[in-house]
Design goal:
It contains 11 helices and 7 strands. By secondary structure, it is of the alpha/beta class. It folds into 2 domains: 59 residues, no CATH class; 191 residues, Rossmann fold (3-Layer(aba) Sandwich), CATH 3.40.50.150. The chain has a 7-stranded mixed beta sheet, with helices on both faces. Helix 1 packs antiparallel against helix 7, helix 6 packs parallel to helix 7 and helix 10 packs parallel to helix 11. The radius of gyration is 19 Å and the shape is globular.
Amino acid sequence: METLYLDLLKKSLLGELYWENEARILYLRESAQGLRPYDWHTELRIEERMPEFCRTFRELASVGRFLDDRVENLGYQHTMVGRLRLSNVEQCLEQILRDQTPGDLMECGVWQGGVPIFLRGFLRAHGITSRHVWAADSFAGVPASRLPQDEDEDLSADRFPNLAISLARVKDHFARYGLLDGQVHFLEGLFSETLPTAPIHTLALLRIDADLYESTRDVLTFLYPKVARGGFVIVDDYGCIPGCRLAVEEYLARHGLSPKVHTIDWTGIYWQKD
C-alpha cells in the first residue's frame, strides 16, 4: 500500500492526473492573446484536436520543463521538478531508511511545496514519527540579484510573479493532502537570515532548489555541516543555472571535498556524504 500511495502522491504533485487542464490553460492563454483562434470543442477535447501540442507538453512536463522554456508557461502543478527528480528524492529516502541514516529532511526553495509534501507523505506512508520535514523559502519569489555571479538571473517576483508562492498557500497545499502537522516546519525569509539560527541539528536529506549563486552558497554554508554521514545532498539547478553550479563547485573546492556526484537528469545532481 505504501508504494501505491506514494505513486499516486507523485502523480498528483506532478500534475499527471490532470495534465489536460494545464494544457487547456496554455491553449486559452494563447487564444486570449490572439495567437490562435478559440474553439470550444478544442478546449473540451484538446488531446484529440491538438495531439502534437499535447504530446510536446507532456514530454516536457515529465522532465520538469515547460513550453518554449518560458517561465510564463510553468503551469500550476504543485512541483516543477519532473518525474525523474521526484523519483530521485524517493530513492534517496529509501536508502536513508535502509542505512538508518539519522536526521531530518529538508528542501530550500520550495515553490508550491510539492517536494516537502512528498517528504512528509513518505514519512506518513512508512509510519515514521521520529523525523521532521523542513521547508525554507522566502515565500515571496526569488530574491533580486545582488552579486555579480547572479547578474544574468533575474527571476524576481516583479518579472515572474508565478514563482512567488506565499507561505499561506504552501500550508494550504499541505493541508489538502492531509499532511500539515507538527512534523512539518517552515522557515520564511532569506536563507542568510533564517538558516544560521534554525533549530536544525542533523539532516539526512538536504535538497537545494535555490536558483541563485548567493542562495545556493548560503544553503551550503549553513546546512552542509549538518548533513549526516551517509546523508544525501540534491541540487536542482546545477545544470541550468551557472551561478548555482559555481556556488557548488566553489564550496566543495574550498572545503577539499570531492564526493561522487551523480546526474539525475538535464539539471539535477546528487551525492551521498561520506
